[in-house]
């Protein structure tokens, strides 16, 4: 049973943090932040097609895809890239209120992704560059499928307050 005196019942939103926030100087090169696995469905692909307005038949027409050498319709590359969103991991929870902006990203698409594939993504801190009262965090991003094949790799950069 909780203590009912007034001092112990003071509400503090920071008591509800998922993880303890850390500043730029507390992060370490080599730290890995993983997202939960997710299996892509036709519904996911259709929803992304609607949002992106990308109506190329390679993404939804099975016969068209086979005609051009694909085993099935190909999931949109940008949808696969979305699996590297920092918010899919705990990384932005660690950044907390020191996060300033997402500076840049790059990626290479290495293998096709199809409906039914399960994707596993991670962000690994590869560089921490202090710049006065701010710092730049660089992460390597990687997405694997259920066959342990690397389907996407790239890089993100974030700007944090120090």
Automatic annotation (TrEMBL):
Listed CDD domains? R_hydratase_like
PANTHER family xref list? BETA-METHYLMALYL-COA DEHYDRATASE, MONOAMINE OXIDASE-RELATED
Q: Which residues form the MaoC-like domain?
A: 29-141
Record lineage: Bacteria, Pseudomonadati, Bacteroidota, Flavobacteriia, Flavobacteriales
Native organism: Chryseobacterium cheonjiense
Checking Gene3D superfamilies in the record gives: Hotdog Thioesterase
* Segments traversing the membrane: none
What InterPro entries does this protein's entry cite?
Answer: HotDog_dom_sf (IPR029069), MaoC-like_dom (IPR002539), MCH/BMMD (IPR052342)
Q: Which domain of life is it from?
A: Bacteria
Q: What is this protein called?
A: MaoC family dehydratase
